[in-house]
Structures are given as structure tokens and as C-alpha cells.
């Protein structure tokens, strides 16, 4: 088992690969504001800073005007990719190509499974992310 670590990334350095649900963003924003803590890191591709998992949290961070977000970094060599939409081809190569072209998949298209690894993250107060 690999030990994973959390890094803090500039929100402006991140790129989405798929859309999001606006209602889910509103719900999550309210929850995070009420708790006052960010409790789950985004999962981000190491070199291009593509969001693999955490699109709703990313949108919440932007809506709250946060400068930083906690993240775990991965390469596509470490991650399995598949799609929930049989008519849309999703591979790591397609994701990278889409990024270069500025193409974003529809909401709930790309799925990722991540390697097992121990991650301890107690959360961070929102003030530290502003």
C-alpha cells in the first residue's frame, strides 16, 4: 500500500474534464460553509492539473472565492478510466486530447478508479484556503 499525501493547489491552475450539476454545487457549498472546513481533497492529474474527481468541490471553491484547494495527485498510469455513456469514448488519451482542444465532457461521463493507498486528511479550515 502506497502512502498518499495532500498538496494545496491554486484553484486557477486546475482544469475540468467534465461538466457538473449546479444543484449539487449549491447543496455542497451550503454544507461546506456550514461546517467551516474542507474535508475531502480533489483528485487531480499531476502534470496538466486536470480534475479527475471533485468537479463539484472545484465549483464550490470558485463560488466561495477560495484561492487554494487540497488535492491528491495522480498520473493516468495509476488510474483506471471508463465511461457511463456508451456512445462517448473515454480514455486517458481522449481526456488529454480534449484538454488541449478545450473540450469538456458532459456531466457524469468520465469515471476514474484510484489506487489503494493510505490517506490521512483531517480537513482544513476554510480561512487557510482563502
What are its keywords?
four-stranded mixed sheet, two-stranded parallel ribbon, 3 helices, 10 strands
Structural account:
It is a single chain. The chain has 130 residues and is of the alpha/beta class. It has a single domain (2-120), classed as Conserved hypothetical protein from pyrococcus furiosus pfu- 392566-001, ParB domain (Alpha-Beta Complex), CATH 3.90.1530.10. The chain has three helices and ten strands; from the N terminus they run ββαβββαββαβββ. It has helices at residues 22-35, 55-63, 92-101, and strands at residues 2-3, 7-10, 37-38, 42-45, 51-53, 68-74, 80-83, 110-113, 117-118, 124-125. Strands 2-6-4-5 form a four-stranded mixed beta sheet, with helices on one face. It has a two-stranded parallel sheet with strand order 1-9. Strands 3-10 form a two-stranded antiparallel ribbon. The longest helix has 14 residues, at 22-35.
Amino acid at each position: 500500500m502506497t502512502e498518499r499525501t495532500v498538496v494545496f493547489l491554486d484553484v486557477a491552475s486546475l482544469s475540468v474534464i467534465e461538466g457538473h450539476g449546479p444543484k449539487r454545487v449549491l447543496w455542497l457549498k451550503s454544507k461546506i460553509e456550514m461546517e467551516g472546513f474542507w474535508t475531502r481533497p480533489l483528485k487531480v492529474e499531476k502534470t496538466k492539473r486536470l480534475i479527475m474527481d471533485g468537479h463539484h468541490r472545484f465549483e464550490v471553491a470558485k463560488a466561495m472565492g477560495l484561492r487554494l484547494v487540497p488535492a491528491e495527485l495522480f498520473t493516468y498510469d495509476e488510474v483506471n478510466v471508463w465511461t457511463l455513456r456508451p456512445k462517448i469514448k473515454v480514455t486517458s488519451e481522449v481526456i488529454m486530447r480534449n484538454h488541449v482542444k478545450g473540450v469538456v465532457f458532459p456531466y457524469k461521463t468520465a469515471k476514474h478508479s484510484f489506487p489503494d493507498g493510505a490517506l490521512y486528511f483531517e480537513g482544513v479550515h476554510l480561512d487557510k484556503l482563502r
